[in-house]
Amino acid sequence: MENLRLNVSLLRRRVPNLTTAAKSIGLRPATVSNLCTGKIPVGRSEVRTLVALASLAQCSLDELILKGDSVEMIETKIKTLDLFSPIAKGGTVGLIARPGLGQLVVLGELFYRLKKEGYSIILLKPEENHPEINDIIDFADVVVDSIEEAYEQTVSLGTKNDVIFTADRSHVLTGDIFKLQEQFQNVNIQTVTTFLLDLKGTSVDEDLPYGPLETALYFDADLAVRHKYPAINPIFSTSSVLEGAHLDQNHLVIQQRAQKLLRRYRELRSIVNVKGLNGIPSSELETYNRGERLEAYLTQPFYIAEEFTGKKGESVDLKDTLNDVRKILDGAADSKDIDSFIFIGKM
After folding, report:
1. What pLDDT is recorded for position 127?
2. Please, which residues bridge with residue 122 across strands?
3. Which regions in the chain score pLDDT beneath 70?
4. Does the keyword Endoplasmic reticulum apply (predicted)?
């Protein structure tokens, strides 16, 4: 079957308040969100859902559904991110987290890495006072105070470089971000990849906290408490890149196998925490041990945190991540000590 995906940018322009609009016609916002990120393939969705979305966007089904187009991935060389929720170049990325789970550290690290790849980094300050944003200001090329200034700087820098534009959810709620993204459609510039964060932490309680997204990064309190950084949830985070027509199928297969293992590992871990290893069947010990190793492997030292952790930052090419994860899944790393996986680059 020809690859199909939703025209997320069109939905974003036509239906800014998609959560309310979806509920008003009987659609579950979570279903709409999963369709946008590709977690639910368009080919498996109900026709009535697609018709309802087309009606909301006041467009035809041909306009709503893109056929055979792939979404280009920005390879960050951050293992868990590239494997489970690749950044869609030119798309919108939502960071969904409570305060204190490390979203600003991840964002600062992305700024650091992508700047070295030639991207221009623009940061729009939040409307309210959030001193914690100062932690990542130094990693941006330009810091602006208004939507108008953001537009001017993006157009100026975007004539030569791809742009990473970042804003707080406060600007999403006013509708300013959607208007700005629509303006970008009408000027001749390089790609603009938008990162949206939520400094208040209320996005966790919303089905569609930012409207339609190409990539959704959910941060996990359990991983953060156990210092398994970056604390990006590998099961809930997702990306439309994984539904791309030209995606390496090896990537998709390994990603799905890894998610399945980690999902079961989390279930077993909750039992082990109460009853110990003797509380799970002997037939599940292999699954538990491999899940434990995979979770540890997905930790990674960051360059911007070197002075705090004492560990040198590591970059891992996607091909190496896929190879290492496949080895863990297939049991080739069963004999390795668990500590040898924690905060490393590639195996």
Report:
1. 86
2. 142, 165
3. 1-3, 68-70, 244-247
4. no
Q: Which of 11, 40, 13 is nearest to 242 (CA)?
A: 40
**Which residues share a beta bridge with 67?**
4
Token output for 163: 């742009």
The residues, ordered by sequence, that sit 6+ positions from 60 with a Cβ below 8 Å of its Cβ are: 54
* 334/337 Cα distance (integer angstroms): 8
Tokens of 296: 């540890």
Domains and CATH numbers, the chain: 4-67 (1.10.260), 73-239 (3.40.50.300), 249-341 (1.10.1140.10)
Evaluate the omega torsion of the peptide bond into residue 230 and state whether it is cis, within 30 degrees of 0.
Answer: yes
CA distances to 137, 191, 263, 298 from 313, in Å: 20, 28, 28, 14
CA separation, residue 220 to residues 28, 117, 236 (Å): 23, 28, 9
Length of the chain: 347
Q: How far apart are CA 323 and CA 251, in angstroms?
A: 10
Look at the pTM and tell me if it is higher than 0.85.
yes
